Input
Amino acid sequence: MIAEIGHFALVLALGLALIQALVPLAGAHWRDAALMNTAGPTAHAQLAFVAISFAALTACYVMSDFSVANVFENSHSQKPLLYKITGVWGNHEGSMLLWVLILALFGSLVAAFGGNLPATLKANVLAVQSWIAAAFYLFILLTSNPFLRLDNPPFEGRDLNPILQDIGLAVHPPLLYLGYVGLSISFSFAIAALIEGKIDAAWARWVRPWTLAAWMFLTLGIAMGSYWAYYELGWGGYWFWDPVENASLMPWIAGTALLHSAVVMEKRSALKVWTVLLAILSFSLSLIGTFLVRSGVLTSVHTFASDPTRGVFILMILVLFIGGALALYAFRAPALKQGGLFAPISREGALVFNNLFLTAACASVFIGTLYPLALEGVTGDKISVGAPFFNLTFGPLFLPLLMAAPFGPLLAWKRGDLLGAAQRLMAAAGIAVVGIAVTFAVSGGGPVLAPFGVGLAVFVIAGAATDIVERTGVLRAPLAVAFARARGLPRSAYGSAVAHAGLGVTLLGIVCVSTWGTERIVSLKPGAKVEIGSYALTFEGMVTRQGGNYRELIARFTVREGDTLRGVMNPSKRTFPARSTSTTEAALLTRGVSQIYVSLGDPNDDGSIAVRVYHKPLVLLIWLGAVVMVLGGLLSLSDRRLRVGAPKPAKPARPAMQPAE
Output
């Protein structure tokens, strides 16, 4: 009965979505307040019914109701409760239900917190958002129904894909979807503004917080997915340039460009046409990522579905929304008024430079990801585009962007002084030079370019700090005056500096682990030792353990640095009988922000076992930098100017009472 309730709630959500898609749109066209006001209640009701549907599927998983085909295919009665719950979105059907739940959540949030929006814009935004929701409700109900029953319910389920039975799965997909789907709000705002034919600085102010929130979730989702692949797949890498990884990176890059472009539009009423296009492209890239994961065109640990029918349906959604949005943009954009002019050397010019390189980098990833698929579809030839291509295209485009990042905040609006900004960055450049020299000395003449990578990372971090130092005058003005300036500085200024510093932290981690990371692949018998870096790992032996739904073979390593015991590591291999598959569970020993990484291979006939050992210097900085970027986003989001948004129109003054005659 619970499954039927969930299915019926989803049908009702579809009905509400169609009402929300049509009635407020008509109300905005006819300027009918009553019709426009239906958008808010229907958005909240739609969220309620989708939440009921999602809760029903979750209940089926928790109760191990194997009469539901989706539960049978992806769960097991002995699976830990946490993985029963996360298994809800560990498959195609359940993950799509989570997708529309988050879509409805964002629509409801706009309805709840969009009080400052003009009535027509709010109605159009919620209508466009509901058109997207209705399309995906239909997709779920027609091709991916998670509530289908089995005629002869089995006693036990087939279990979830073992590599997805990890705490990372509890965090990574919801965060990623909050970012993917959150960009739909920017898309809806763009389409609503094009429908009205009115885009101004206030529009940019309304769009920025939603885009920033989605960007933050997407950043965390990508970072969590990278870390999950790093420790769960046993390969020790942080980024593989897998097409599905690229599918999440592309909207992140476009969203980053959108955030910077929206600042120019808000402050200077410029780049209107470009900003609207970025809002469309950011969510369009999210939709393309959804297609890649669920159409069956790719084979990856990240993909869910391989049913061509689903792929065709999603392709139709892409054509409808991306094609329709771009057609509307082409029709309306020429009529939009352009903003004020600015000199090439200015803060606007720096942000245009930022957008130019970000979009070029995004285009390189887009081409490298989709070109092999297009070539195979047209000619039948299969080619592989891997890390060498992306390293030679993406990296060189990001280097000038990173070099220019500290200059932008130090330039004035409209017309800036590049020489003056360079002079203020002399201290940051000096710190970077010291970093290069120290790295050369410590590395003992290793790779020539690596110290310059370290220097660039230090320059980005120090440059971000320079922006705050210059704004507060902490090195020039009396301490009390500098403190007062610091208190009065907008939080968005701090947020921007912290986010840029986080980018430098990530770069530092990437350079260090890519250059000075070491790897050993050996076969060890109990009592044997392997040395890596300054550490010695001794293989003490193996034991077996029975888990809830798996059997585990656990190795024990003691780690010493000189004569000092630094820890014990227990990598393992797990076998899942229900799926007849096995996984490798890597062991990590963290020392500061560096790690030792041990992964087991297969046992040999002579009683030894293959072992892969890594030393990863400063590897945690890669993901710590992403967390710092998100903290910067939080600071910016807490800025009162973004929380308040554009002011409401002033109410007409009440007429003064006339004296009685």
Observations:
- Residues 347-379 form the longest helix (33 residues).
